[in-house]
Write a structure and sequence with these properties.
- The structure holds three protein chains of three kinds.
- By secondary structure, chain A is mostly helical.
- Chain A is built from eight helices and no strands.
- In chain A, α3 packs across α4, α5 runs antiparallel to α6 and α6 runs parallel beside α8.
- The two termini of chain A are 40 Å apart.
- The model of chain A has no long low-confidence stretch (mean pLDDT 85).
- Chain B has a single domain, classed as Helix Hairpins (Orthogonal Bundle).
- Helices cover 66% and strands 0% of the residues of chain B.
- Chain B is elongated, with a radius of gyration of 20 Å.
- By secondary structure, chain C is mostly helical.
- In chain C, 76% of the residues lie in helices and 2% in strands.
- In chain C, strands 1-2 form a two-stranded antiparallel ribbon.
- The chains are: A mainly alpha, B mainly alpha, C mainly alpha.
- The interface between A and C is large, with 57 and 62 residues.
């Protein structure tokens, strides 16, 4: 019965969408604002990666909202687990073998370095704060899975997270104070395609990378610690 | 056949969306519903990026000097999908933690049985 | 002139600062949301006279619309922002004594973020930005419903999350279809390009967007999550959810239908849906034993009434609907706060256990009665002018359908009066259930202060409705004249 209702509902939605998609042909340019971003992107923001100039330049307010969403979820997760006492009996876990243990410890700094590279070069190559932050969090996940018993310092990760978020907002407020708008690019744009270019974009991406990395690591820490 | 080859990306993206919606509406196990969310989200991201594609376009990065600007795909849907992926991850993390707490209280993940509050 | 972006930035930065403050001292944490919303209240009241003449357009990042994101502080937006700041500050006073324990800094962070998301939704002028702030609102409300971690809370939060995420995915599909058709994300730009809703590529995104926002606004077939979520949440959060989250969902729906699409053909459908929601909400509320569930169903009913009023499409209809928004926010928040403390004292959520509360907690019971009278629509309180305007406007529409709908509304009001009077009768006239000597236990000062400021506002605005009718009339005309909105953003 429920399956029948589900299928009927989906057929109606499918019919509606296909009628609507007739006017959105595939592969033909439909954008008004996209062309402006591609043509004027380097001149107005200074980043040669146009997707970065859209994410952190033109639509930086969306990015602020996005890191707030991730922050909300991390705090919500912490609140849900803070009063949780797992009543299961302790499971005997075998310690990791020597090869796994050493391999994890060897790979950890390399992965973190890759993450930092992707964060810093966000305005030059594909990548940026979110992608690099996720890579750094995956390095910590590797440590949790491979070398059981190591934990991150909770206080340090909370402070790193708060500092990352506050840096983003402070950069915005400085733009507001220097007489123009919130998140106005007040540093000079420099030479395109060099590392120190694009004004506040690398700074914002470093703050985002720090915040996302420490936040995802905190989520992983909560989930692993409280389920044991 | 021409219709299929032209719109294969839309068909693929919407198949994922419909599979995700079907799982969401019909399945009983909470973990399956969460996986359904993930599939639904992936379908939506694919659909958004497909809207931005321009035929014979390349990535919008001026990595070599002299790259022509009219041969690039639309950068805006890619920025939208970046934001949407992070939002999807946040909801997924919250859903999984709620599933852990729910199992702790009820001992089962069957959504039809967790109906203590009726009417 | 103050930059309206501060209304969003200041609470957000304070929310980011709370984890650092938590390491220094835990005692000052509970004052931070109150300070933030007092600040918001002052800024929005200062902006209000200015925006009544001309909406204030603020760009972000220095890029002009439609290429950058912009904030449009019009009369409707600043009215909602003032309401959010007012209710936010008062409920945060209530939470001084109500939230204790280990995880209290997380409560305050989530509370600040919920209201920041709500303020962002009502002020923004870009449709994807609307979605992002709406997600902030939704995710913090999922976490706050489950905050106490008990069985009912977690179950309600799971149901709310599944339905809410379904709604958000539908909104995202709608935004994708709109971008594919029009090539821009700015609401004024899209509105300028839409001339008729009848072509399929405009109609389908509109249906998706209305359904997605309708899940949060609790319109009839989509409101299955609401009774559970509002009754299992902590009482201060029930007040915020019923008072603000539903209204913000309604704002998003109304903004989409009136300003973005300019659709007058779908208003008839929304009219019927609103009347259905009203009737079903009030009927279900009548048979409830649990007081918070009763108040939650009453919220569904009031949402139906507001949707009905706004779908009438005329100036006094929309003004009546917005008046009802203000009255419902203030009245329902007061009812949830008062009921919350009564539940805390009597130990159970059943109405029958409230016997004798009239003597045990005289001030709280008095406030509860004032809230109930105001919501039913009795004269000296703020509920009266709103309902009067709606019924008068519906009477002046000459069609036969409206007579049936007016009868439905009056029937619903009678049912509402019946169940509220039932509760008041139990509070004041039933005998004691418990100790034979009724000792007077007055609620702590923080709780009483917030409850009485609500009572004062309800009485003052009921006696002098002219205080806010200017703002409401300006907001209604902003919704009806979408060409002015488009001109004020893109000259």
């Amino acid at each position: 019965m429920r399956k029948l209702i589900g299928i009927i509902l989906l057929t109606i939605i499918a019919a509606g969408i296909s009628l609507s998609l007739k006017e959105i042909p595939f592969g033909i340019p439909k954008t008004i604002i996209g062309n402006h971003f591609i043509n004027k992107g380097i001149e107005e923001t200074g980043a040669i990666n146009i997707v970065t100039s859209v994410v952190v330049g033109y639509r930086s307010f969306d990015t602020l909202g996005e890191i707030t969403v991730l922050f909300t979820a991390a705090i919500g997760l912490g609140a849900l687990f803070s009063l949780y006492k797992n009543k299961k009996t302790v499971i005997y876990k075998e310690p990791a073998s020597l090869i796994v243990y050493t391999g994890c410890r060897f790979l950890f700094p390399i992965i973190v370095l890759t993450g930092i590279y992707i964060i810093i070069h966000g305005h030059l190559t594909p990548g940026g704060g979110f992608q690099g932050g996720a890579i750094i969090a995956s390095a910590f996940l590797l440590m949790y899975l491979g070398c059981t018993g190591k934990r991150i310092n909770y206080k340090l990760s909370t402070i790193a997270e708060a500092v990352g978020g506050l840096t983003f907002i402070t950069l915005g407020i400085v733009g507001l104070i220097t007489g123009k708008d919130f998140l106005f690019n007040f540093i000079s744009k420099g030479e395109p395609a060099s590392l120190m270019s694009a004004g506040i974009i690398p700074l914002i991406y470093m703050a985002i990378g720090l915040k996302v990395g420490s936040e995802l690591t905190g989520i992983i820490d909560n989930l692993i610690e409280k389920s044991q | 056949m021409n219709f299929l080859s032209e719109n294969i990306y839309y068909i693929g993206a919407f198949s994922l969306i419909f599979i995700g919606l079907y799982i969401l509406l019909v399945k009983k196990n909470l973990i399956k519903v969460i996986i359904g969310f993930s599939i639904l989200d992936t379908g939506i991201y694919l659909f958004l990026i497909t809207i931005g594609y321009i035929a014979d376009g390349t990535a919008p990065i001026f990595s070599k000097s002299g790259l022509k600007a009219d041969r690039m795909v639309d950068p805006v849907p890619q920025a939208l999908v970046l934001t949407a992926i992070v939002i999807g991850v946040a909801v997924l993390a919250l859903a999984v933690s709620l599933a852990v707490r729910l199992y702790g209280h009820y001992g089962t993940l069957n959504l039809r049985k967790i109906k203590e509050q009726r009417w | 002139m103050v930059n309206p972006v501060l209304l969003i930035v200041i609470p957000l930065s304070l929310a980011f600062l709370i984890p650092i403050f938590a390491f220094i001292s835990k005692k000052i944490l509970k004052f931070i949301p109150f300070v933030a919303f007092l600040f918001n209240l002052t800024i929005s009241l200062k902006l209000l006279p200015r925006v009544l003449e001309q909406p204030v357009l603020t760009t972000i990042g220095g890029f002009a619309p439609p290429f950058g994101i912009n904030i449009v502080a019009g009369p409707l937006g600043i009215l909602f922002a003032t309401l959010i700041a007012l209710v936010g500050s008062l409920v945060s006073i209530y939470a001084f004594n109500y939230i204790k324990g280990k995880a209290q800094e997380k409560y305050h962070i989530l509370y600040l973020l919920l209201l920041t998301g709500a303020t962002g939704v009502v002020l923004t002028g870009d449709i994807f930005n609307l979605f992002v702030f709406f997600e902030i609102l939704c995710i913090s409300s999922y976490s706050l419903v489950a905050f106490f971690g008990d069985k009912a809370g977690i179950e309600s939060a799971v149901k709310y999350l599944i339905q809410g995420t379904l709604g958000s995915s539908l909104i995202l599909i709608g935004i994708g279809l709109l971008y594919g058709r029009f090539g821009t994300l700015n609401m004024a730009d899209i509105a300028g390009n839409i001339h008729s809703v009848h072509s399929m590529s405009v109609f389908v995104p509109m249906v998706f967007l209305i359904t997605g926002f309708g899940i949060e606004a609790a319109i009839f077939p989509l409101n299955a999550w609401l009774p559970d979520a509002h009754s299992s949440a902590p009482s201060s959060i029930s007040a915020i959810l019923s008072g603000i989250a539903i209204e913000v969902g309604l704002y998003a729906m109304v903004r989409i239908v009136f300003t973005l699409f300019g659709a007058s053909s779908i208003l008839t459908f929304l009219l019927i849906l609103g009347a259905l929601t009203l009737l079903i909400g009030e009927l279900c509320a009548f048979s409830q034993e649990n007081i918070k569930r009763m108040l939650a169903y009453s919220s569904i009913g009031q949402t139906g009434l507001i949707l009905f009023a706004i779908s009438m499409g005329s100036l006094s209809g929309i003004t009546g609907g917005l008046f009802q928004v203000v009255s419902h926010t203030l009245g329902k928040a007061l009812l949830f706060l008062a009921a919350g403390y009564m539940i805390h004292r009597s130990g159970s959520m059943n109405i029958s256990s409230f016997g004798g509360m009239g003597k045990k907690m005289p001030y709280t019971s008095f406030a509860f009665s004032i809230g109930a009278f105001s919501l039913v629509g009795l004269p000296p309180f703020i509920g009266f002018p709103g309902k009067f305007m709606i019924i008068k406007e519906a009477l002046s529409m000459q069609e036969a359908m409206f007579t049936i709908l007016i009868v439905l509304i009056l029937l619903a009001t009678i049912i509402e009066a019946a169940y509220f009077f039932k509760v008041i009768q139990v509070i004041y006239f039933k005998g004691e259930s418990g100790s034979p000597v009724p000792e007077k236990e007055i609620a702590p000062a923080g709780i009483l202060l917030s409850i009485f400021i609500f009572v004062a506002l309800i009485v003052v605005m009921g006696v002098y409705p002219g205080l806010i009718t200017d703002a409401l009339n300006a907001s209604a005309s902003e919704l009806l004249h979408r060409v002015d909105y488009i001109k004020s953003v893109l000259p």
